Amino acid sequence: MLVVYNILLKVAALFVFPYYGARMLLTGKYRKGLGQRFGLLKPEIVAGMIGAPRIWVHAVSVGEVTAAAPIIASLRRRLPDACIVLSTATATGQEMAHRIVTGTDSFIYYPLDIPFVIRRVINAVHPDTFVLTETELWPNFIRHCRSRGVKVIMVNGRLSPRSFRRYALTRFFWKFVLKDLDGVGVISETDARRFRFLGVPSHRVQVFGNAKYDSLAARTAPSIQEEISLRLNIGSQEPVFLAGSTHEGEEKIIFDVYGNLLKTYPDCKLIIVPRHIERVRALLALARSAGFEDVITMTEITAGRRRHDERVIIVDVIGELFKAYSLATVVFCGGSLVPRGGQNILEAAAWGKIIFYGPFMDDFREERDLLEGAGVGITVRNGSDLLNGLLEMMADPDVLAQRGEAGHRIVAANKGAAGRYAELIADHLNPPSGAKATEGNVPPFDPQ
Q1: 440 lies in a domain?
Q2: SS3 sequence, 38-57?
Q3: What φ, ψ does residue 119 adopt, rounded to 5°?
Q4: Is residue 9 part of a domain?
Q5: Mean pLDDT across the chain, nearest whole number?
Q6: Whether 202 and 228 share a structural domain
Q7: How far is CA 14 from the centre of its chain?
């Protein structure tokens, strides 16, 4: 299986490398950490890896870093002498890691899944345990860890319906990869069933909850709200409609809804945070075509180029969405009016906000069901539904506050997963003597 995978990898490289090479030359994207992706770690980075045991945590990008942060903090409390290395696959993930993760000795970029590159990096880091956050499976890396005696643990594991369908189509291959995982900690029982179905031995899968609850609950400090309020010049009593993690096809709806919202709330401001900040130019053009000339980006605000009290703010800086949610009166969470699977609605809930989203929430079904059960999350089908929902909620501040507080309590009540994941990692560093697990039976599973 690994031979076939590497043959396919070489074929794919013939097409992928020229594409990304051209993107780097034309846009500068992907240049950061390029040497590290090929296994070239600077001596000073390796020199900073001091302590034992050595734990390498991998978090692909911003979302995974958010989950990894409280787990790493909990690990550091348990193992103060450990060396903890954190890798990311994206520059935005690296920026977020430097911003919110404490207790890490070194930050690196994750290497390409090429055997000679992997060997070079593992020789440099020399981990006792490799911890992958959520679901980032690279066969060569995992197999090489296994051959070196490095334990491989998954934390905050999840498989969205879309991801599960893709993995299930090639289950014969992933069963071969997943059997090399020593422990799999997952968010929900649904995720556990999916991993068992794909081939993880039953006794290795445990349900621990979502570590993002720990991260979010810990970050909702009044000082954060005060800082961004001053930076954006938005008072605590000003009505704010915030659209977070929006995708192409949603922003036009948002601008239309906002234009109608102004008829009832003329002093309302719009903060819009696109999922991909490289689309900011398109959003600026879209805003102006919708009749909003008083629009500014966060980058312009930071540079002191504010012209007057602009009505529309486009956040074009990574890592600011969570803070911006603190200013919102009402929230729309994107990737949901178009079939993108939705985005993380827990961030707004942590701040006690009512959240609207479209029908395409396949990747966040559990979170949606949890918040809707408390009246915090509201599904809308289109712009008309969204406008009517916003007007209804904003007309009754007491209901808005009561429902929002219920969401905040849900996030606070679900804390504790990070500690459970840290315990899972520690247990595999020092397995109890005489412990013996049994494979157990894999229960039948309905892929739907």
Answers
A1: no
A2: CCCCCHHHHHCCCCCCEEEE
A3: -60, -45
A4: no
A5: 90
A6: no
A7: 30
